[in-house]
Amino acid sequence: MSLTVKNISVTYNPINQSNTFTSGDFISGQVILDVAKDTQMQSLSVKIKGKAEVYWTERHGKTTVVYSDKEKYYSVERFFVREDKTHGNEMLKDPSGQPYSSVVAPGRHVYPFTFQLPLQHFPPTFKGSVGKVVYTLETKLSRSMRISSKDKAEFHYVPGPDVSNPELMAPQYGSKDKQMKLFTSGSVSMNINTEKMGYYLGEGLKVLAEVQNSSSRAIKPKYCLYEKHSFFARGKRRLHTHDLLKEAGEPIEPNSKKTVTKVLSIPPSLAISILNCRILTVEYRLRVYLDVPYASDPEIKFPVVILPPQPVSGATNRDFGIWNQPPGSNMYPNPPPMAPLAPPLHVVGPPGQFGAPGYYGPPLNSFPDPGYPGPRGPFAPPNYTGPPGQFGPSVSNHSDPSAPPPYQEYQLYPQLPDHPEKS
Fold first, then answer.
1. Which of 12, 36, 144, 179 is the most exposed place for a label (fewest CB within 10 A)?
2. Are residues 61 and 193 in the same domain?
3. What is the pLDDT of residues 141-186, one digit of tens each?
């Protein structure tokens, strides 16, 4: 930072206790500029951005190959000060409705702004080992013959829950039979049911297992919930898997049949499932298997979708944060107070006392939905060519006639290639 510009920062005002934003929300904040003497500005701007990116390297012999890709969701910039006046629709005005001056006196100067987030559903904020989805506010001060001064603040975006697809709330069913060999004789079979595919953080995942042990040894049902992070670039895939929780049931004695119920608690700290991003995915699997001594374990896998949290009933931007402060209190001492509620971004409205006045620009929801598929680029992930049912659990061709219908593939999002180690 130069001797003239002591500090520049961009901040936003939380609208709820979890400090998250969702589609259609207004995000208001301020650019704060501290200068030591009279300063001439070429431009001062604020920008809101959303994007996903992946980056990793691999060694091939003596060569290091870089794999990277980006997916942009939106980028809108507005100017408080700009020498080029030809783009008047991008200019913000001061609280009195007048243009901001390009010359500022020594001291602190505050520039309020308001954006409205798009109505489309974008991937939630996420940070993984070699990829991330980030949403930011950025400010930039440009002066003649000087290095630009910048600042950036990330905000947490969470899309609204989409439970309109009936497959998310439909029961899942799978069965498996295995004939024992070598050190164990007989056979084992299991029929597994789960109540649904989509779950909220902290919710209980109920598993109903009917196990027929016709072998010569006791067996034990076991349960494993694990995550899959996939990153795509230049036709390559980088996979990260991690077991989140493991639990075991009671042993089932030889030549017996038993029905057991297990409830697994979804950890509240998990990332929301990401299935609508071209360059990265966040998936979850439930693996139910029988621990058979001296034999390979028969298993069934079910996809699990972690849904965004449900909004509080009747809650609005006014229900949280600075609007709830008691008289005379100051929850956020640095930023100035905001306007009660900003007008829509696509209209010209009267200037508020502290909110972004005047013209707000076109609504961000005019941007296209990032959902895949679309025109396939050179770095799009490869087509899924596995046999039907590979995305979900294996389903036996011989099931009880009274059992619920077999699990069908989850078709809400495009299918992805599976992995030989963990599907």
1. 144
2. no
3. 999 989 999 999 999 999 987 767 888 999 999 999 888 776 667 8
